[in-house]
Structure formats: structure tokens, C-alpha cells
Amino acid sequence: MDGLKGLAWLLVFQCAGEAISRTAGLPVPGPVVGMLLMFGGLFLERVRVPVAACADILLANLSLLFIPVGVGVMTHLALLHRYGLRLLVVIVLSTWIGLGVTALVLHALRDRPEPEAADV
Amino acid sequence: MSDFVALWVYLSSSPLFGLTATLVVYLVAQAAYNRSGHAPWANPVLWSVVVLAGALLVTGVDYPVYFSGAQFIHFLLGPAVVALAWPLWQRRAAVRARWGRLLVAGLVGGTAASVSAVAIGWALGLQPDVLLSLAPKSVTAPVAMGIAQSIGGVPALSAAFALLTGLVGALSGKYLFDLLQIPKDTQGWTARGFALGTAAHGIGAARAMQVHSEAGAYAGLALGLQVLLGSLLIPLVARLFA
Q1: Do A55 and B86 touch (CB under 8 A)?
Q2: Cβ–Cβ below 8 Å for B73 and A67
Q3: For A46-57, what is each residue's pLDDT tens digit?
Q4: Could you give the dihedral angle defined by the CA atoms of residues B13, B16, B18 and B21, in that order, rounded to the nearest 10 degrees?
Q5: What are phi and psi of A83, to 5 degrees?
Q6: Alpha carbon of B216 to those of A110, B8, B87, B175, B194: distances in Å?
Q7: For residues B201 and B140, is the Cβ–Cβ distance under 8 A?
């Protein structure tokens, strides 16, 4: 029951986000505005308890939610075939650059010295 | 035999088919992923997509028919983005103490991913509309499509680039971080997760959430931050160069 209430709250905040994003003409999509609103909403216990139950299930299965779009991309591979190997090179290299740069920046800015946790 | 054909024609054209197939294939892929000890190559998105796309090609079921059922799952992406507020809220004190460096990392990392994609693509002689479609590739697919549209790229190409980017990140991130000697303490997991969310959006974040809760929370934050930064900055930069 809490999970269902949580879903209802998530949808209410998404609707509010869509409404704000559209009426204010923001370039930021509705669900992201909804996420910012939800951060405030979670301070209320009657929102937090059900949303926590639903969010844990949704986020644990986030992978599932990308499958419908992914299948669409795979069935339209002809679109990518035209550019072939060059595209693959671009995507792989730029993803590694993005991952590496982000992780190294945060690693360089970390708090030191930190009491070293046992290596896991 | 013709009874079977009639039944198959009925089932395969109803939304029930796409929804059932997606859930069942995902659960099997997820079970295999768990059994592999969360090995990156066993990524459940990758294998589910490969199996389902293969099944559609073999059976000749059109994608729109499949999507009429799968859309019920696709729809949950919206509430899931709103739900990303929860892991963040739980760590609000830590996030507040570090927001400056997180913003710097998201800005620098997101820029590096986008600029390097366009630059390498340009060096390899890709056409301008493909280059513009590459710019938002580290932003989650539905938003990347909107950005591509606004700067003169091809939305369908952007969705494909975003998906492949997410898979590359989820599959290879662990090895790259190990190579760069990013540690596996709390701050190391923060860096790994945040990097996955920044450069490999939702599919990277999904991987991070399954590997480590700290990494998952910061991946969610990074994903949201890239949506904000990408949808504000990419159209602005594109206008400067236009």
C-alpha cells in the first residue's frame, strides 16, 4: 500500500514539474523539475515514508526502464550502419574521456587525509 | 496449426505481448547478471535489448506493436527521475558539504565528454548534422533527443548515441576506474558513481546502483545535473558557433 501511495506522490510531483517547466518555458524537462520539488517534499514524513518504499523498488530496477527505448534503437540499426566504425570509435573514446575526467577531478578534490577504510 | 497461427497473430499484435516479453526477458537477464556476480559484460540492459530486438526481427513483429505494450514500462522513466531525489535526500548533509566540487566535476566531465565526441567525430570526417547529434550524448536519451532537436541534430540519432554511450560506460567503467586507480573507499565510490552518472547517464547510474549504494546515489545526482547543465549549456554553445 505504501508503494502505491509512493507512486501516486511521485506522479503528483512529476505533474507539478511538467506544469512549471511548460508554463515558465524552462529548457529543463518536467521530471527533473519534479525531482527538485521532491527533494523539498521529502522533508514531510507523510510524503517521505511512502515515496521511500516506491523509490527503492523503481531505482533498483532502473535498468528495466531503458529496455523499450533500447529495443527501438537496435531495430533501427540501419541508421547507424551508414556511419559504421567511425561512430563506434567516437562513442567509445568520448565516453572513456568523460568517465575518466569526471572521476579524476573528484579524486583530485577529495578530502585528505581520510582515515583509510579497509580495502574491499 | 492454423489455430496456433491465429492465436500467435492475436497475441503478438496485442500490448500484452510487448509488456510480458520485456518483463520476462529482463528478469532472466537480471538473474544471470546476479549469478555472474554483477560482471560488467553480463549487463542486463545489453542482453535484454539484444534478445528482444532479435526476437522482433525473427518473428517479424513491428516495433510500434511491441512498444504498445512496452510503453507501460517506458512510462515509469518519468517517476524514476523524480525518485532520484530520495537517495540524495538521505545524503543531503554530505551533498551540501561537497556541492562545489561535485558541480565542478559535472561541468568539467560533461564538457569533456561532449567536446571530445564532437572533436573526434569532426576529425574522422562525420557530417555536421551527425556532429550536432553527438553533442548531447551523455545526457539521458529522452532529454538528448530534445536538445538535438533544438540545435539542428537528428533526435533519433541522438537517442541511439545516448543508449550506446550508456552501455559503453556501464560495460567498461569498472575497468577504466581500476586502471586510473580510483580507490574503493567511500570517496572513491562517490567518484566512480558520479562519473558513471555524468558520462553514461541512466544506464551507467543503473549499474552504479546495483554495485554500491553510495555510487548509485551520486550517479543519480550526476544524471540530474547533466540534464540541467546539458539542456542549459549545449543550446547556448551551439548558438555561439552557428
Answers
A1: yes
A2: yes
A3: 999 999 999 999
A4: -120
A5: -100, -15
A6: 18, 41, 8, 17, 8
A7: yes
Amino acid present at B110: G
* Cα gap A111→A109, rounded to integer Å: 7
Closest of A32, A109, A67, A93 to residue B194, by C-alpha = A109
- Give residue limits of the domains in chain A: 1-65, 68-120
Q: How far apart are CA B229 and CA B220, in angstroms?
A: 14
DSSP code of A113?
Answer: S
Is the pTM for the entire model greater than 0.95?
Answer: no
Q: CB–CB of B99/A77 below 8 Å?
A: no
Position B146 confidence tier, pLDDT thresholds 50, 70, 90: confident
Contact A99 B157 (CB under 8 A): no
Residue B56 near residue A71 (C-beta atoms within 8 A): yes
- The x, y and z cell numbers of residue B129, run together, are 548534422
Report yes or no: B198 and B220 within 8 Å, Cβ to Cβ.
Answer: no
Q: In this complex, which of A29, A42, A109 lies closest to B86 when CB atoms are compared? A: A42
C-alpha cell at A3: 508503494
CA distance A12 to chain B (A): 9
CB pair distance less than 8 Å for B74 and A107 = no
Judged by CB atoms closer than 8 Å, whether chains meet at B185 and A75 is answered as: no
Mean per-residue pLDDT of chain B: 91
Q: Does B121 touch chain A (CB under 8 A)?
A: yes
Residue of A nearest to B44 (CA): A63
Is the Cβ of B198 closer than 8 Å to some Cβ of chain A?
Answer: yes
